Amino acid sequence: MYEGPIVDSHHHLWEWKNYPWLVAPITPKMYGSNYQPLRQDYLVKDLLADFGANNVVKSVHVQANYDPSDPVGETRWLQTQADRAGFPHAIIGHAVMTDPNIEEILQGHRQYANTRGVRHQLHFWEGDPLRCRTDRPDLCITDEFQRGIELLKKYDLSFELQGFSHQFKYFEELVRNHPETNFCLVHAGMLTADDDATVNAWKEGLEHLHPRPNLWIKCSGLNFFSGKCDENHMRITLDHLLDRFGGDRCFYGSNFPLEKLWASYDDLVATTKRILEARPQTEQRKYFHDTATSFYRI
């Protein structure tokens, strides 16, 4: 079983007062309504306590929907935390790619040493507003959106794609149109269930993305839709992704503290290691450490 170093490529840190969705009264979310435990500060010391003895040596913070009136404020605060505590090693900031001031926002993020990329959440599910962050499935291929994406190569930034399998054909077009920018598909492509129809649709969607060499898969948030540390669901997801994309294009992320609603960090890592234990040690090392280190230049 793998005992080497781990890079957690997807977690969040926050002072919860700065996040409108945490401050507001609890309402149903895509992952349910039982998120009261998140409504408190989650700082570097809390993250390291959750990492425990799992040999997590580096980490990546991904934007967590900070106060939209200050789009660079989260990155500014995170850099102070990194300078003081040594974590996180990379920051993925929030950027609405269709914002008329997108270049100014990218410049704002890029002035901080640990900035490596941005995320604009794109998930859309017809008829289910809880699964929507946009009002259309193909926003990413509009001219307005792609003008923002085109700027990423100027600032040496990557982009985090988040959406469902029926959107992957649009993601492929975006990635193909911008070959000089690196993209990763977060949360392993958001597989919502284990029934044959859902899994097959997810696999078919991934085939759109497989030929694109500037597209990686971040295997984070694997229990997002199951609401428990579900080894069967995790195995279905990881076995297919590693068989199809390999350790050179797949890497580990926890999605803590959201994932903490359903699993301890120890259980999450132990379950992942069991699923991967029959694979070559070189592939396990790539998945847990090397590929994320390369992708985020950390």
Would you give an account of this structure?
There is one protein chain. This protein has about 300 residues and is α/β, with parallel strands linked by helices. The chain has one domain (about 5-295): Alpha-Beta Barrel (TIM Barrel), CATH 3.20.20. About 35% of the residues lie in helices and about 15% in strands. It has helices at about 20-25, 45-50, 75-85, 100-110, 145-150, 170-175, 195-210, 230-245, 265-275, 280-295; strands spanning about 5-10, 55-60, 90-95, 115-120, 160, 185, 215-220, 250. It has an eight-stranded parallel beta sheet. Helix 8 (about 230-245) crosses helix 9. The longest helix is centred in the C-terminal third of the chain and has 15 residues, at about 230-245. The radius of gyration is 18 Å and the shape is globular. About 45% of the residues are buried.
CATH superfamily: Metal-dependent hydrolases
Q: What is the percentage of strand-forming residues?
A: 5-15%
Shape: globular
Residue runs with pLDDT of under 50 for 5 or more positions: none
| SSE ordering | EHHEHEHEHEHEHEHEHH
- CATH topology (fold) name: TIM Barrel
Q: Helix- and strand-based class? A: alpha/beta
For the record, the count of structural domains works out to 1
Distance between the termini: 25 Å
What is the count of β-strands?
Answer: 8
Helical percent range? 25-40%
What is the top-level CATH class?
Alpha Beta
